Amino acid sequence: MRTASPSSPLWNGLTDPARSVALEVLYHGPLSRAELARRLSLSAGSLTRLSKPLLDSGLLIEVGTQLDNRIGRPAVLLDVEPTSRHFVGVKLTGDEAHAVLTTLRAEVVASQRAPLHSHDPDHVVSTVGELVSGLVGHAPDTVALGVSVGGRADDNTTVTSAPFLDWTDVPLGKMASDATGLPCVVENDVVAVTEAEHWFGAGRDCERFALITIGAGVGYGLVVHDQLVGSPDIGTGLAGHISLDPGGPPCGLGHKGCAAAMLTIPAIHAAVSVGLQREVSYDECLDLALRGDPVASRVVTDAGRALGRLIALVGNLTMPHKIILTGDGIRLASVAEDVMLQRIADERDAAASTLDLDVQTFDFFEWARGAAVIAIQKYVLGHLSPATSSPPSPSR
Amino acid sequence: MRTASPSSPLWNGLTDPARSVALEVLYHGPLSRAELARRLSLSAGSLTRLSKPLLDSGLLIEVGTQLDNRIGRPAVLLDVEPTSRHFVGVKLTGDEAHAVLTTLRAEVVASQRAPLHSHDPDHVVSTVGELVSGLVGHAPDTVALGVSVGGRADDNTTVTSAPFLDWTDVPLGKMASDATGLPCVVENDVVAVTEAEHWFGAGRDCERFALITIGAGVGYGLVVHDQLVGSPDIGTGLAGHISLDPGGPPCGLGHKGCAAAMLTIPAIHAAVSVGLQREVSYDECLDLALRGDPVASRVVTDAGRALGRLIALVGNLTMPHKIILTGDGIRLASVAEDVMLQRIADERDAAASTLDLDVQTFDFFEWARGAAVIAIQKYVLGHLSPATSSPPSPSR
DNA sequence: AGAGTTAGTTTCGTAGTAGAATTTATGTCT
DNA sequence: AGACATAAATTCTACTACGAAACTAACTCT
Questions:
Q1: What is the pLDDT of residues B325-384, one digit of tens each?
Q2: Does position A1 have pLDDT exceeding 70, yes or no?
Q3: Which family does it belong to (chains A, B) (predicted)?
């Protein structure tokens, strides 16, 4: 069924204008040649010329004609064949590795996870290797691997620091590449999720947006002028250190009411568990708050207000067109929606435009999907180092 | 002495690559052709071709050879002739108009101010007209006028709202253009100062920076990816509404401890004057604090801490390479430096890079210079509407 | 003096573009 | 049904701007 061999170039030897055509189609869905010409400010003639080789190589395909046009010749829609290439994304936490196999459009085809019994890089890499080979079985045309971690990554190759794994300067990219035979890129987990929203999610048609994740920590990502704001400080607790409530509980560093101490799953879990003198799961905390339990209600309401404040700060200081809320603990935003919205309104100028909030549903595999998106980006932009050409080592 | 007549095209009919060469020279000082080729990723041959007509037209001039080169043929430096064109910038406040005449590089050549006896747009425009004709006397080659106001400006032509002038939807650009015979651009005052720092100030070699102004209000500007972040919300009190100290005094809208209530000249002036039961000027407030007056010290210390918090928030949420502090009240940052820096450190991750703070000296005419920079930008980018070709009306 | 190095110019082949003319494929109107 | 309008897509030609390479120029170092 599949025609192109995994080693065929496809996205590799493209000229700049040809790549821009392919990219426009990749993230703005099926488009006609005429529409592409308008978007890229090219003549119709140029578009025919540029699209011809892309169609010949199978990178683009014609997918029927436009339905909703009124008069004149119907436009033939061009699209990428999303299943022409596959990608694997892996997210590492302190005790598990989550992996997904995705198409070129970051649609998840299969997923898998495995526990990490140790933080030893060799052990982690071999676990990653097993996950990858399991998933690649579904798609021999897999061309790249992305790995994300909570922490700092340098140059898409090295994990500079990862507190949850107690890692410093681990050359994860090279190690994973050697173990899997796939070119591998490494990135911070929040950056990866931000790019996933940017290219294939709620941030797709948005030249400026911010993303806040609630989970084990508070994550923060920013896209301005259609480009991620990258800083060496990403991966340190930027948003997590922001004080949101001077009367709130202290975090590990003694900051009272900072985001990490008010909004994270562990913080809410701990506050409610202590208050009720029993272990209460995060979801149970939220359920209790909904049912009016006084302890849980107070914790969750305080958290909702703190989240509202954080959102207002981000809104005022980065002027985003949209703020995306996501992460495995984001249910907080629904449960405490009222106080959150009230707090946002309180800290915004009445004349300012209302903030467009976008609460995403979130499954833990989204973290892994983000990692796959980093791999997709590097692949289609031609930034992928040609990988160590070693074949995947036979498992074990 | 001057060769080009004011109406000669010069920056008008440039092709894109030619303009990029001229711009690179404009804001990165004298550069050799070889250096330009490297910076713009062009071949040496292309640079000869591109620079030739720019030199012929007088837009660029050769200004001697490079001093500090070690070996090989010495490089001939190209530069713009900054006095080949002049610009006028005007800043409007509620009771005065400040105006400056600048060169192409935004160097102030002359300045002047006039009181505004009324907020009637016609009166204001005629005052602007008088200031302009006074300044243009020094430089008949003046090619554009920029006007800045505290408030919102749409499309560089209309003042959408300006609280200090009680204006709504005043077509200031057209009116000032008619009155002066110069093409006129209108912009928010903080945006204008931000662009001045961006092109010709501390932000010149910085692809991402934030700017905070302390004055009658608190202003906030942001440049990311070497481009100003523009939003319709600019001109509403974005930064001013941020709550910085829950125990602080309330602002006019009842927000306790918000930036507008803690950091502005009027706020500090009022707090100290009330505390000491006599009128105390802003500078006197700061002097008293330095000399240990308990009332002034407390107000100024609280303000310094609040400023530190604002800076930390901006630093954490926009990850700037630099934060520029400026405005007519910026002496606060020096007087309360210690508490300010302490507060910044408290709200930043220890592993995060230290924030590069740049406190600018500020003269009120800087506001007007910013307006001139907007005019310069529009002129050199070719975005200037060709102006109503009416000659300046003979004054009176 | 001659080798080495960098700056700038000239020439020339080529890639990529726009634009006009043409063909194809629908609609609407009478 | 046929004329006409509209728009998409293709083909062809001319042009432009670029880089590569060869060359000249100016200077340093040995």
A1: 999 999 999 999 999 999 999 888 888 889 999 999 999 999 999 999 999 999 999 888
A2: no
A3: Belongs to the ROK (NagC/XylR) family.
Measured CA to CA, the distance from residue A28 to residue A20 in angstroms comes to: 12
**What CA–CA distance (Å, rounded) separates B160 from B178?**
19
| pLDDT tens digits along A247-263 | 888 887 778 889 999 99
- The alpha carbon of A60 is separated from its chain's Cα centroid by a whole number of angstroms, namely 25
pTM attached to this predicted model: 0.93
In CATH, the architecture of B204-359 is: 2-Layer Sandwich (3.30)
A348 token code pair? 């915004």
What one-character DSSP code corresponds to residue B126? H
Contact (Cβ atoms closer than 8 angstroms) between residue B89 and residue B184: no
User: Rounded to whole angstroms, what are the CA distances from B95 to B113, B116, B146, B148, B370?
Assistant: 11, 5, 19, 14, 19
Q: What is the CATH number of domain A16-83?
A: 1.10.10.10
Query: B317, A318: Cβ pair inside 8 Å?
Result: yes
Where exactly does CATH 3.30.420.40 map onto chain A?
85-194+366-380, 205-359
Helix (H) / strand (E) containing B190 = helix B189-200
A161–B255: do the CB atoms touch at under 8 Å? no
Percent of the residues in chain B that have a pLDDT greater than 90, as a whole number: 78
Among chain B, residues having any CB pair with chain A shorter than 8 Å are 161, 208, 220, 222, 224-225, 227, 229, 231-234, 236-243, 246, 255, 309, 312-314, 316-319, 346-349, 351-353
Residue A38 tokens, joined: 């308008």
Q: Where in chain B is the domain with CATH 3.30.420.40?
A: 85-194+366-380, 204-359
Alpha helices in chain A (DSSP H): 16-27, 33-40, 44-56, 121-136, 172-180, 189-200, 259-262, 265-276, 282-290, 294-318, 331-335, 337-346, 365-380
Note the CATH number of domain B85-194+366-380. Answer: 3.30.420.40
Chain A contact set for B188 (CB, 8 A): none
Q: What fold characterizes domain A205-359?
A: Nucleotidyltransferase; domain 5 (3.30.420)
Query: Residues of A from 76 to 95 whose C-beta is within 7 A of strand D: which are they?
Result: 76
Q: With bands split at pLDDT 50, 70 and 90, how would you rate the model's confidence at A137?
A: very high
Determine how many CB atoms are found less than 10 A away from the CB of residue B277.
8
Question: Bridge partners of B258?
Answer: B243
Contacts of B302 in chain A (CB under 8 A): none
Neighbour count for residue A117 (Cβ, 10 Å): 10
Q: Which residues pair with B97 in a beta bridge?
A: B92, B114
How far: A360 CA to D8 C1' (Å)? 39
**Within 13 Å and on the Cβ side, how many CA atoms surround B80?**
23
B231 to chain A: which residues are within 8 Å by CB? 319, 353
How far A238 CA sits from the closest chain B CA (Å)? 5
